[in-house]
Amino acid sequence: MRELEELRREIDELDRKLLEIINKRAQIVLQIRNWKIKNNYPIFDPSREKELLERLVKENQGPLDEKAIIGIFKTIMSYLRALEKDIEVLYLGPEGSFTHQAAVKFFGEGVKFKPLLLVEDIFKSLEEGSEYAVVPIENSLEGTVGSTMDLLAVTTKKVIGEVYLDVRHSLISSEDSMNKVKRVYSHPQALAQCKRWLRQNLPNVQEIPTSSTSFAAKIVKEEKESAAIASNFAAEVFGLNILAENIQDSWNNKTRFLVLGKDIPKPTGKDKTSIIFSVKHQAGALYRALRPLHDFGLNMTLIQSRPVPAKPFEYRFFVDFQGHIWDEKVSQALERVKEECIDFKILGSYPEANDF
Ligand SMILES: O=C(O)C(=O)C[C@]1(C(=O)O)C=C[C@@H](O)C=C1
Predict the structure, then answer these.
(1) Within a domain: 226
(2) Does 279 reside within a domain?
(3) Residue located nearest, by CA, to atom 10 of ligand 1
């Protein structure tokens, strides 16, 4: 037992040093805050945070892995950032939703999260002064989220980041065994995505559709003999047992979320730009609008058309490509794109997620 005591004493000593170092870091962050206020510079700087995480991952010698390094330092930065300013982040709720999980992944735990139940309400609140929000934009199985795209077209806020999340479903419940489950609640898409597993493992349960996976989690918190299909994150938020993990039929289910804010982050060298535009109803108009991207060697990562509201069968196009609007070749290419468009708007430039 002497050995354990000795090792723990060493840990106690290291923790004391860690505490001191973290508080020293906090003091420097507070000085940065004063500088930022004086120079009217945004407190939250996603480009700097990404650079810092990437450097630490590169310098890391282990035994901690990349995921652990990112998790630890993101949490530290998130809480120290809170010393600089109270940040409130809106997300598409309810609590425990995949968008909630994406928001935590991007901002860390140290901010105040506020769920809203409609994408429309999020954009309205942003126009009324809310600073940050996270909204879903596309899912690898279901396609793009039309309401988000339509609201991006009119918002005065900017896209300042993106988050990817693997959609993994679990069977979660306040029961402790699958044998007791007679009803399974979830969003119809999640029920459909777990069809095979349900048929094989719970063939006789009643399937009940809900408006979201997290609402299903909320129901089963109170209801006996029932379970929800939702994320492990929802299980954690609602204090439920995970009865089975990864029950989805496909592993290729990813959702991409956009982070909205006021200030375009500075270039990191690996950025994306999102634009929206409409072109005349003419042969080759879309081709001419996109050609400058090709001419300047810019790699397009998304193109999606959406009907223009109040103009039946007219379309506008959402395009994402790699590069930052402050890059010379991006600004030159966009000048040329603009010449070919009726309407043109830059939605934002932001650090590309390389799964951070
Ligand atoms: O470097 C800054 O700008 C800081 O405010 C410090 C810090 C950090 O903790 O490292 C915190 C918040 C910013 O989003 C970026 C980095």
Answers:
(1) yes
(2) yes
(3) 77
**Atom 3, ligand 1: residue with shortest CA distance:** 45
Q: Is the CB of 29 under 6 A from ligand 1?
A: yes
| C-alpha span between 337 and 346 (Å, rounded) | 11
- Is 77 within a domain? no
Question: Residue for token digits 């170092």?
Answer: 21
For the chain, percent helix, then strand, then coil, each to nearest 5? 45, 25, 30
Domain limits for position 225: 170-244
Is 78 near ligand 1, meaning CB less than 6 Å away? no
Atom of ligand 1 lying closest to residue 48 CA:
15
Amino acid 142: pLDDT: 82
pLDDT tens for 79-93 read: 999 999 999 999 999
| Structure tokens given for 59 | 């310098």
Cβ of 218 closer than 6 Å to ligand 1, yes or no, is no
Q: Is residue 274 part of a domain?
A: yes
Q: What is the pTM of this model?
A: 0.91
Could you write out the DSSP letters of every residue in 4-30?
A: HHHHHHHHHHHHHHHHHHHHHHHHHHH
The yes-or-no answer on residue 257 being catalytic is: yes
Instruction: Verify whether residue 213 is a known catalytic residue.
Output: no
CB-ligand 1 contact for 160 (6 Å cutoff): no
Question: Helix, strand, or coil here: 242?
Answer: strand
Query: What is the model's pLDDT at position 1?
Result: 64
| Digit-coded pLDDT (tens) for 146-180 | 999 999 999 999 999 999 999 999 999 999 999 99
Query: What ligand 1 atom has the least distance to the C-alpha of 52?
Result: 10
Active-site option among 255, 268, 273, 318: 255
Query: Active-site residue among 98, 233, 238, 257?
Result: 257
Helices (H) and strands (E) in the chain, counts: 12, 15
Mean pLDDT along residues 298-307:
95
Task: Report percent pLDDT > 90 for the chain.
Answer: 90
Residue 356 has pLDDT above 60, yes or no: no
Residue with CA nearest ligand 1 atom 8: 77
Query: What total number of domains does the chain contain?
Result: 2
| Mean pLDDT of the region 202-217 | 94
CATH number at residue 329: 3.30.70.260
Q: What is the CATH number of the domain that holds 205?
A: 3.40.190.10
